[in-house]
Amino acid sequence: AEAAEMERLAAEEAEAERLTAERAASAAAAAQAWSVLYSSACDGLDDGSSAKMRKFTERLESWYNERMAMFDEDASFRAVQETKYGGRDGYSASVFGVVEGKISGARAKAEQAVAKAKAEGDRLAAEAERLAAEEAAAAETERLASEEAEAARLAAEEAEAARARAQTEALGPGAGATAPKPGQSTQRALQ
After folding, report:
1. Running DSSP on this structure, what letter comes out for residue 86?
2. Tens digit of pLDDT for each residue in 124-159?
């Protein structure tokens, strides 16, 4: 009986050592996988989106660690998961797959938000450019109208001066009339 007990204790100890080695190997692989996951989750995003993804990934890592601790500490839970996934590595891969899916979905949403913000920025820039072009066209139209009005005013003054000269010439030399000044009526110049 004592030999059987010693054998049972040795088997338990061997199983505990095997589980400890399995957990250590799994933890090392998980640490490397998380490192890759963190960088792939945040690469290429702006600072705000990257910070959100990092925080989301941290929450998922915490969830992953809770699930793995439950596997390690709860024998009945572990038995069910071993039946389903074939062991700790299989269960870990399954939980990690869920994490990867969630991060992939969140990253796609973040990339869509960045693309939408860029499109809105481009639209606003085009609208600003269009408004600036309209303002420039309106200013040019106003400038041309002002130049046209000035040209019409000068033409009217020249016509008035020419009419006054013609009238003075029609009165003949020495009639005592003086040529009207620009803007002065011909009647007043003759008085």
Report:
1. S
2. 999 999 999 999 999 999 999 999 999 999 999 999
Burial 152-175 (b: 16+ CB within 10 A, else e): eeeeeeeebbeebeebbeeeeeee
Residue 188 pLDDT:
52
SS3 for 74? coil
In terms of Cα–Cα distance, which of 74, 5, 65 is closest to 31?
65
Residue 114 has pLDDT above 70, yes or no: yes
- What would the mean pLDDT of 29-33 be, rounded to a whole number? 81
Backbone angles phi, psi at 162, to 5 degrees: -65, -40
Euclidean distance between CA atoms 18 and 20, whole angstroms: 5
106 and 114 Cβ atoms separated by less than 8 Å: no
25: Cα separation from own chain's centroid: 41
Structure letter (DSSP) for residue 175? S
Three-state SS at 135: helix
